[in-house]
Amino acid sequence: MPHQNIQRKILRTICPDAKGLIAKITNICYKHELNIVQNNEFVDHLTGRFFMRTELEGIFNDATLLADLDGALPQGSVRELHSAGRRRIVVLVTKEAHCLGDLLMKSAYGGLDVEIAAVIGNHATLQTLVERFDIPFCLVSHEGLTREQHDQKMIEQIDQYQPDYVVLAKYMRVLTPAFVQHYPNQVINIHHSFLPAFIGARPYHQAYERGVKIIGATAHYVNDSLDEGPIIMQDVIHVDHTYSAEDMMRAGRDVEKNVLSRALYRVLAQRVFVYGNRTVIL
Amino acid sequence: MPHQNIQRKILRTICPDAKGLIAKITNICYKHELNIVQNNEFVDHLTGRFFMRTELEGIFNDATLLADLDGALPQGSVRELHSAGRRRIVVLVTKEAHCLGDLLMKSAYGGLDVEIAAVIGNHATLQTLVERFDIPFCLVSHEGLTREQHDQKMIEQIDQYQPDYVVLAKYMRVLTPAFVQHYPNQVINIHHSFLPAFIGARPYHQAYERGVKIIGATAHYVNDSLDEGPIIMQDVIHVDHTYSAEDMMRAGRDVEKNVLSRALYRVLAQRVFVYGNRTVIL
Amino acid sequence: MPHQNIQRKILRTICPDAKGLIAKITNICYKHELNIVQNNEFVDHLTGRFFMRTELEGIFNDATLLADLDGALPQGSVRELHSAGRRRIVVLVTKEAHCLGDLLMKSAYGGLDVEIAAVIGNHATLQTLVERFDIPFCLVSHEGLTREQHDQKMIEQIDQYQPDYVVLAKYMRVLTPAFVQHYPNQVINIHHSFLPAFIGARPYHQAYERGVKIIGATAHYVNDSLDEGPIIMQDVIHVDHTYSAEDMMRAGRDVEKNVLSRALYRVLAQRVFVYGNRTVIL
Amino acid sequence: MPHQNIQRKILRTICPDAKGLIAKITNICYKHELNIVQNNEFVDHLTGRFFMRTELEGIFNDATLLADLDGALPQGSVRELHSAGRRRIVVLVTKEAHCLGDLLMKSAYGGLDVEIAAVIGNHATLQTLVERFDIPFCLVSHEGLTREQHDQKMIEQIDQYQPDYVVLAKYMRVLTPAFVQHYPNQVINIHHSFLPAFIGARPYHQAYERGVKIIGATAHYVNDSLDEGPIIMQDVIHVDHTYSAEDMMRAGRDVEKNVLSRALYRVLAQRVFVYGNRTVIL
To answer: Which residues form the active site (chains A, B, C, D) (predicted)?
Structure first.
């Protein structure tokens, strides 16, 4: 019988590994009479780092809970308390529709617990599609602008919507460091290759040239280096000699949209932890 | 430099296996000065049956080409000459949007060379989605009708559009033999399980109960027996103990839509041959 | 700097879910000055059951540790403390070599931390292979024996070796309930199909008949019902119309041996929990 | 009713594409009263190259058959006539047992129609394993030799056995151009990564560092450039943050041996055609 003040929240802890961490954190939750719906943790023994995701249910007093945790955790700890539930994203696009279409469908008809606040394109190609789903489309053309100027205009548009994440759904421009730093660990990209193979432009043509028998896609956080951020999810499909570069591109689109959507599902559920150039998914 | 009368057509041959069949057929094409763009054949040695798909380019005289083939092929042969290019389908739905959405996206933005002439639902749930893509939606409710009456009304609606294929995109009703026989080898269904496991209703719940570690989907032609027609394509994903039946259902939706779309791609390209309860895909 | 009394052990807990379980168990470990190398837990909210696998390192006082746990855990709890390290198995075979060969290779050259104490066959076909690896082979022919008599002779042979697990590596006979009950949750089988499809004999021929586009294999615990025990692991490969039943069988063998070996790897690491007809793998 | 002179042979044709090629080749086979058991062809329209594999059964007059073909095919054609059946290989190894073990098992117990004439190692580590299968093991140590001298000694050993192919089953040395040119399109390697990612040494450690979520293996022909020859087959498995580099290595071994064995299966069946840096598999 859910009481009106009963909430579900997600506690995320990253800290240096130490004896008794699980006991300390779960004791505090127990003391606060919070029920642990789901708990997952991981210790990276190579770097001595502890990760824990705790899904809690009960009546929260955020301030005292966090203060109690701060008293118990070692120095250098990061702990975040997120409410569960729907997140808000802004999607950046260029001309290709498939990843955007999948996000629009899943936002509207189920599959991703997400509100698409707006779609921003540097071309107008996808405006009609977006408006079919009653979502605002903003054209921010890069014509006549430096990369820095364009990214600054994008930031201004995006920030109006205060999104939790910025999703690059085949946005085909390289972002400036200023843009990336403005959204730390908040920008998610789908790269149309199995990274780190075929970094850079026209990966399907590179794949065709190399005669590979598998093509793939990679969803990753964007950091300063192009195509080099922490990988969240990857998947592949088998191809053969009958595939032209165009056939690879067509077949690859399904992989791209699936990988992006599955990665986003885990990000939205607060399951993905970034450290260094790696992710832990709990 | 394409001449205005140059066309591309697909010749499909099924006949009893015999010595020299490839030579005979390709000789006739050669004599007609048709270029073989792509040729694939298969002999089922168990049943002594020969299958060939020949993609031809040139100036066609259909009547003499087919007459020449009839003169050369053994008795009991079937040969069909199809023009290459866009096909037309009618899609049947109930309430679930994911397969339909993928077809709408691919028809409108690339990925399937298909015109969706209309979508017919036995519920009105998906009307808005269909109309967003400027495609006619027809509600043919089953309320108060026998199965036979309802299917008869569906047939009347479908036949107005003269589709090449009828695609069941999560249409959750069993079809009558009369319906199936009205569209021989033209009705394609996506079944939400890895057939022949979990035939029947609520396959994800069955899968959960059984504790499987993999779930899948099956695209198949519909014949008289429920869930028993010739399989075109199947795919799976791995699941684990953390998946509830609902999680399986959500994850399974992506597999369903991918499998349906990949199966349809091959059907539209005239690559799928049905014989008995099996398919040959050339 | 490892002290000579420092050991690694695995604590496995299954109990009714309750508030504070993780805190209670990890507190006790902390009090015993045991380091948690790795901890994984899962709550099945449907049945209200809590599962936890805790890999501990330190100086163990087993008796007081277990007594402390018994004092803290709710009624109906099961907790087991296993030493980490090499396990011992007996392998049952009939005539097919591939799964056995993979186990022999991995036991001798790495990949599975397991000692194969003996191989028992109801045919002598594989005797040479086993002896090549300097492992005892026992022939226990079923000729002239009832199923009960034969299984009784098998039990006598097996029990001499006191194995942790009995692995059926393509042992092609149905076991009696008496045999299965003699080794509760200790008998692991590889079934040459994607269960629950194609239960019973000649699954590859069944798969061929049905015209499936995917074949698979299933590793599972054996319980009373044939082919019906809790599933540990499954995998599949794609096939097409060019595969005869024999081709499926040949291709399937690699899947079978991979799935058996991967399942066994997790069982040996004490990661697999059985409850009802399901497994939780932590 | 097989006549004693009835044989099965495989005709492989590579030539510039032209109208009527299939007709011409199959006509000649028909004229020779050879039955086409299986025929596969492919045209690479980008380079205008035609590939055909024709499995024939009948009474062969090789000289006149080839002469007839030479009269009909365009200039620059390559046609080869191979007897069907068991091939002979020499396997090169260093210290790792898993790929070798799989080849030994499949050669002895079914799965690959191949005779392992000898195994040559630059270390003695695997001598016992090879001798368990009654196959000669030759140690050709590289100690104190230049790369050229060592490869020359290897060639001398290998050539004694006149193998059809040389299989590198985790042979961890770079081969000299002289070695590679001595066995054109006859040297097959398994590379422990998903090429072209992680070229070079310690690919699993590179993969771990990059934080990938998938690891793979690649079977390819060896040409002059290290890790750069035509790819025959690739496969992957999913990994996650819990995998250390060593875990990736262990899990990767199963992929390596499966990919090598599946690639070799197609090579032995004369299904793999090399052109430029690509393969066509018919």
So the answer is: 227
Tokens linked to C140: 């226990």
Return d(Cα C68, Cα C81) in angstroms, integer. 13
| Count of beta carbons in the 10 Å neighbourhood of residue A106 | 24
Quote the CA–CA distance of C199 and C192 in Å, as a whole number.
9
Contact between chains at B258 and A258 (C-beta distance less than 8 A): yes
Interfacial A residues in 148-187 facing B (CB < 8 Å) = none
What DSSP line would sit under A91-133, residue for residue?
Answer: EEESS--HHHHHHHHHHHHSSS-EEEEEEEESSSTTHHHHHHT
Which H or E element spans position D98?
A: helix D98-109
Spatial separation of the C-alpha atoms in residues C281 and C272, rounded to whole Å: 5
Q: What is the dihedral of CA C146, C150, C155, C158, to 10 degrees?
A: -170
Confidence band of C120 (pLDDT split at 50, 70, 90): very high
Of B103, D40, D257, the C-alpha closest to A101 is B103
**Residue D207: Cβ within 10 Å count:** 26
Neighbours of C149 (CB within 10 A): 12
Q: Where are the alpha helices (DSSP H) in chain B?
A: 21-31, 62-72, 98-109, 127-132, 147-160, 177-182, 203-210, 245-268
Res D55: pLDDT: 96
Please say if B227 is a catalytic residue. yes
Question: C130 CA to chain B: closest CA distance, Å?
Answer: 32
Closest alpha carbon to C39 in C21, C30, C26, C27? C26
What is the SS3 assignment for A130-149? HHHCCCCEEECCCCCCCHHH
**Chain segment D102-146, per-residue pLDDT in tens:** 999 999 999 999 999 999 999 999 999 999 999 999 999 999 999
Closest listed residue to residue D192, CA positions, set D98, D85, D128, D111: D98
d(CA A229, CA A185): 9
Q: pLDDT tens digits for A104-149?
A: 999 999 999 999 999 999 999 999 999 999 999 999 999 999 999 9
CB contact under 8 A, B30 and D19: yes
How far, in Å, CA of A214 to CA of A233, rounded? 16
A203 burial class (0-12, 13-18, 19+ CB within 10 angstroms)? buried
Reported as a pLDDT band with limits 50, 70 and 90, residue A2 is low
CB D155, CB D175: distance < 8 Å: no
In Å, how far is A22's CA from the nearest CA of chain C? 7
CA dihedral B239, A233, A101, A182 (to 10 degrees): 140
Q: Does B3 touch chain D (CB under 8 A)?
A: no
pLDDT-derived band of residue D45, with 50, 70 and 90 as boundaries?
A: very high
Domains in chain D: ranges and CATH: 7-83 (3.30.70.260), 87-281 (3.40.50.170)
The kind and range of the H/E element at A266 are: helix A245-268
Q: Give dist(CA A116, CA A100) in Å, integer.
A: 10
The active-site residue, picked from B17, B44, B164, B227, is B227
Q: What are the angstrom distances between the C-alpha of A226 and each of A91, A220, A223, C114?
A: 19, 11, 7, 45
- Of A123-137, B6-20, C202-216, the one with minimum mean pLDDT is C202-216
Asked whether C273 and C51 are in contact (CB, 8 A), the reply is: yes
CB B262 within 8 A of CB B190: no
Alpha carbons within 13 angstroms on the beta-carbon side of residue D30 total 16
Report the sign of the C-alpha dihedral through residues A166, A167, A170, A175, in that order: positive
**Is the minimum CB–CB distance between B234 and chain C shorter than 8 Å?**
yes
- Whether B87 and chain A come into contact, CB under 8 Å, resolves to no
Q: Does B277 touch chain C if contact means CB atoms closer than 8 Å?
A: yes
Check: CB of residue A65 under 8 Å from CB of residue A72: no
Can you name the residues that pair with B91 across neighbouring β-strands? B119, B167
Min Cα–Cα distance to chain D from B234, Å:
19
